[in-house]
Design goal:
By secondary structure, the protein is α/β, with parallel strands linked by helices. The protein has a single domain (8-159), classed as Resolvase, N-terminal catalytic domain (Rossmann fold), CATH 3.40.50.1390. The protein has four helices and nine strands; from the N terminus they run E-E-H-E-E-H-E-H-E-E-H-E-E. The protein has helices spanning 23-36, 62-73, 92-104, 126-159, and strands at residues 8-10, 13-14, 43-46, 49-50, 79-83, 108-112, 118-122, 176-178, 185-187. It has a five-stranded mixed sheet with strand order 3-1-5-6-7. Strands 2-4 form a two-stranded parallel ribbon. A hairpin with a 6-residue loop joins strand 8 (176-178) and strand 9. The mean pLDDT is 81.
Length: 188
């Protein structure tokens, strides 16, 4: 029987990349490399979705989908390395699907903490899956709270007839003035 080489894979992801320079994912890549070596892990494959959210199920993440297909189609991926478990999923059905996939693959997730620690989630065990789902549920809840806050902020702007940014609605002009006390620039 031939011995199959195990492939450790990593998935850096940044939801919003304001500069387009992928600095966030590059920092994640460096942190993964720094923390993987002491665990005796060499990353063979990198999957990266820069500037793509994991909070919605209608968003396509090409490299995530490729990683999922690679794990599903081969039995040689024992571990996925990420910076923070929330980089993988922030949507409940995706969390469940990933957990099931890694359970079937007898795999784990090594979530590297930016403070220097790491948490291993052995998704082949019940305890590992419960811990991973708990952490992922926290990320799902955080995403929903952010969404609710943004919805309320936009509603306040709309009710006050204030422009909330983005494309200027028809009939709006951009004006720059000083505040009544003259200390602040006000853009409307």
């Amino acid at each position: 029987m031939a011995h199959r080489r195990l492939r450790y894979v990593a998935y850096p992801r940044r939801s919003i990349d304001q500069t387009g320079e992928a600095l966030g994912v590059e920092a994640q890549r460096e942190l993964i490399l720094l923390r993987a070596a002491p665990h005796g892990v060499t990353v063979i494959e990198w999957y990266c979705d820069n500037g793509i959210t994991a909070s919605r199920d209608d968003v396509v993440r090409p490299d995530y989908e490729r990683m999922i297909a690679d794990i599903r189609d081969s039995a040689d991926v024992p571990m996925v390395l990420v910076v923070e478990a929330s980089r993988l999923n922030r949507e409940e059905t995706a969390v469940a699907a990933f957990s099931k996939l890694m359970r079937n693959a007898v795999g784990s997730v090594l979530a590297i903490d930016v403070s220097g620690g790491a948490t291993a989630y052995d998704l082949a065990t019940t305890a590992g899956r419960v811990a991973y789902r708990d952490k992922a549920t926290d990320a799902v809840n955080e995403s929903e709270q952010i969404s609710d806050r943004m919805y309320r902020w936009h509603a306040r702007k709309r009710n006050a007839h204030e422009w909330a940014g983005g494309a200027k609605p028809y009939g709006w002009r951009r004006t720059v003035d000083l505040s009544p006390n003259g200390r602040k620039i006000v853009i409307t």
